[in-house]
Amino acid sequence: MNELELKYGCNPNQKPSRIYMADGSDLPITVLSGKPGYINFLDAFNGWQLVKELKEATGLPAAASFKHVSPAGAAVGLPLSPVLKKIYWVEDMGELSPLACAYARARGADRMSSFGDYISLSDPCDEDTAKIIKREVSDGVIAPGYTPEALDILKSKKNGNYNVILIDPEYLPEPIEKKQVYGVTFEQGRNEIKIGRELFENRVTQNKEIPKAAEIDLIISLITLKYTQSNSVCYAKDGQAIGIGAGQQSRVHCTRLAGSKADNWYLRQAPKVLELPFLDNIRRADRDNAIDVYIGEDYMDVLADGRWELVFKEKPPVFSAEEKRQWIDQLSDVSLGSDAFFPFGDNIDRAFKSGVKYVVQPGGSVRDDQVIETCDKYGMVMAFNGIRLFHH
User: Fold this and answer.
1) SUPFAM superfamilies recorded for this chain (predicted)?
2) Catalytic residues, which ones?
3) What's the whole-model pTM score?
4) Residue 219 to residues 50, 103, 119, 237, 257: CA-CA distances in angstroms?
């Protein structure tokens, strides 16, 4: 099949719409279920590249949760701690496969942003992973294969209309890519740069020790950034992205946005949050929304009389700003990648507040010395990799 007609483009008024191979070859995908749309395919193809590269770089199964052509989460298949199982809502599922752990991490990093995501998997989807997907609000999944059990589960989702795409793992795109904007054709070489540990060799700070676990996190941050709309930074820890700041015009705003998401990821692990007395019949999305409000500045929106009764069995105590700061101060050994250089040390000041210890960025700012000095003040390790990873 050389082309696939789509219902419409980015918006319902944008017709006609299709995907096709300009060279006359067959599309590298097969739709096994549902009818994916234009944005679904943008998410699927970007996400597939991300997880394919993560698997190649780390040797571990990888998963990504995409929304509007940027990842909300990305992770590799490391085991889940009891606390992570609880905050990712998979504690009732027993031992999970490595691929299922990867998706639980990718989906769970920023559950608010992952609501209605498109899923990308580096390995054939197994039954464990399909069971997690089945219970979440999601638009579809792309993978290089599906076990019969997994495919049966996925085909039953959304009354048989769930989008399931099979990708040919041997497909190699042309080295030159093109797109049109306002009738003008843009052309560029594909970004084929390989991301690995060698990119962390130029360590410019006084502290130069990067453990192997942090190297994996730095790899995750950079590969995630390679497929995130720029400007962007990515915080990573324990095999997953925990905060992604995508599409900001200012570097420090990227750092703040991603840092606040990393903070929220960690706040969800605080005892006060783990012990919230939710009503037994509360829906998963409502539970996520309530937690997001409870740990935020507008906590009274969920704790006010007449409101908390809709969510909780009893009124929870306020999680004060002081308590939240004390908890976040325990977050440590976080890795941070940036898709372009940090122009000022204020980015490092903000990163430190979210437990960042390891940093990788291109370098090349006229204020590199100031940025290095700020890292040294906090005992951080920073490497200059000399590469920019803008993606648009």
Assistant:
1) Cytidine deaminase-like
2) 67-68, 231, 392
3) 0.96
4) 11, 18, 20, 11, 20
